[in-house]
C-alpha cells in the first residue's frame, strides 16, 4: 500500500497534512515517542501555525503530533486499539469509511471534524469486561500523524487517504458492549493539560533524570544552563550513538534507516538551534538565546558523548537482511519480506536501489553477462553479487575477473558497485596495505574494488593482507592524527578486474590463497558494438531488476553455505585457481617437475633459465623476469634438492655459477 501524503516524508509534509485536516495545530515530537515534548503545549494559541519559525521546527521534527478538539478547528480522532475491532466499528458507521484513517503498530485512528461544540474531552473507552478498547481523542489530547511509532519498527501511515469527515458526536454509533464514561466539558472543566498517552512528557522525563534546563539565582534570574539536561534532551529527541573506539557520533536517519556519521560541530549547531527554538516557544526560557557560546555547546556535546556511548554498537553479527532504498529485506530461509526501516537493524550501509519484486533485467543478462562468460560462471557472478548486497563476506573469498580487454569485466564491476552503493565502496590499494594508516580508509565500507589492476597486484608488498580482509580476521586500523587503534573484522567483499592473469606472492601459503581465490575468466569474443558507460546505463534502466537477480544469487549462495559450508565450484573453476597459483609459483613448479637429483651431474644457472623459459609457454604461463629467477633460484634449489649454489661449474673451459648433483629430466631436456 502506498504511503499517503499525510505521512510521507519531505519538506512539504506539513502542507499535505493540512490539506486533509485544515485548521489543525501541529506539534513537533521526538522519534519513537507518542507524547509532546513542548512544555505548555495545551495553552499555546492556534496562531502559532502562522509563525514560520514554529513551522520550521515542526518540519524538522522526526514525528508530528496533532492537538485535538476546540483549538484545532474541531479535529478529533477515534483511536481503536485492535485490528479486529476496526471493521465492526466501520460497519456501524459507514460514513466514516471515507474519512482519513491512519495506523501505527496496530488498530487505527479514524479522524473526524466535529460540526458542533457538544462533544466530550479525552475519554478512555473499555469493554463491558473492563478491557481497553480505545480512546475518544479530543480537547486535551494529541494524536500522532507522522513519523516512527514508539516500538521503533512501525511508521505512522494512512490506510485511507481522504479529508476528515464532518460529523456530529451524536451521530457516531458505538458498539453495544462498550462502557463509555464520557468526559463532558461541563463535568471535567478545562482538560487542556491532559495527555492522551501513558507516556510521561519527554521534556519532563529529561528534567527528572538530568535536572532543570537552567540554573537560577535566589531571585529567579537565569544564571546558567544545565549542560547535562540539554545533552539528555538531544539524546531523547534523537537516536544518537557515540562509538568510543572510533571516536565518532552516529545519528539515526529515519528517512534512510541508516546511522549516519555526525561531527561534534554539527551537533553543536543542532543543539544551538534547539535551544533557540525552545527560547522562542517558552517565554520562561527566552534567555537561553544568550547561553549558546562555543564553550557551553562544547560542554553539552561532551556530556552527550558520555550519555550516548555504546561500545561495539556496530560490531558485525550474522546478517539475515539486506538494506535497500525502500526498506529492509529480511531473509528467513527461502522466504523474504520487506520491512520498514528501524534502528534495531544497526545499519550504516544500504543499497540505493529500491526493491521491486516484479522488476527484470533482460539487457543486463543478454548483453553483458551471458555472452561474456561460461554458464557455470554466470552462477558464480550472481552469487557473489548477492553477497556484495549482504555486506558481509560469508564464504571468505575474493573474486577476480580476468581475460582480454573489451569483454565487459569493468562494466560488470561498475554495475556491482552501483547496486551495492558507491558510498559503501573503497578502492583497494595492495601496495599500501602494509602502511600505517591505510586500513582506516576501509572502515564503514563493505566492498573493496581494484579495477584494471596490473599483473603484479597480488604480488606486491602488503597483498597478503587481502586474505585477512576477506577471511574474518581481526585487524587494527589507526587513524592519522588520532590516538590508539580501532579494531575491526575483515569481512569485506573484494572484487578486482584485470586484463592480465594475476600472479600471487604466495610466500609458502598456497593453501590459504586457494581457499580465498575465486576466478571468473572472460574468454568470449568482444561485443560488436561498444556502449559508453554501459554499466551506468543498465543500472539506470534496470536497477531493480539487477537487484532481484543478485538477491536470487544471495539465496543460492546461502543454500550452498547451509549444505557444504562454501560456494559450490565446478572442477573447471577449481582448476583455474590451481593454475593461477601454479603460475604464481612457476619456478618452483618447473624445478619440481623438470629436475632430478643425480650424483656426478651439474647444471649452470643459464641452463636452468633456458629450460624454464621453454617450459612456461608449454604450460600457457608467463615466465618470471630473469632478475626474479636469479633471486628465487638459490633458496628453491636448497629447499628442493639441498643443492648449494656453486661458482666453479665448468663449461667450455671456464668457471660459471650453477648447482651440483642435479640434472634435467631427459623427457624435458631441450
What descriptors fit this protein?
alpha+beta; Prim-pol fold; 4 domains; eight-stranded mixed sheet; 29 strands; 32% helix; disordered N terminus
Walk me through the structure.
- The chain is of the alpha+beta class and 670 residues long.
- The protein folds into 4 domains: 187 residues, Prim-pol fold, CATH 3.30.2250; 105 residues, no CATH class; 220 residues, P-loop containing nucleotide triphosphate hydrolases (Rossmann fold, 3-Layer(aba) Sandwich), CATH 3.40.50; 84 residues, Orthogonal Bundle (Arc Repressor Mutant, subunit A), CATH 1.10.10.10.
- 32% of the residues lie in helices and 23% in strands.
- The protein is built from 18 helices and 29 strands.
- Strands 3, 4, 5, 6, 7, 9, 10 and 11 form an 8-stranded mixed beta sheet that branches.
- Strand 12 and strand 13 form a beta hairpin.
- Helix 11 crosses helix 14.
The fraction of residues assigned to DSSP E strands is: 15-25%
CATH architecture of the largest domain: 3-Layer(aba) Sandwich
Structural class: alpha+beta
Shape: elongated
Low-confidence stretches: 1-11, 187-200
How much helix, percentage-wise, in residues?
A: 25-40%
Number of beta-strand segments: 29
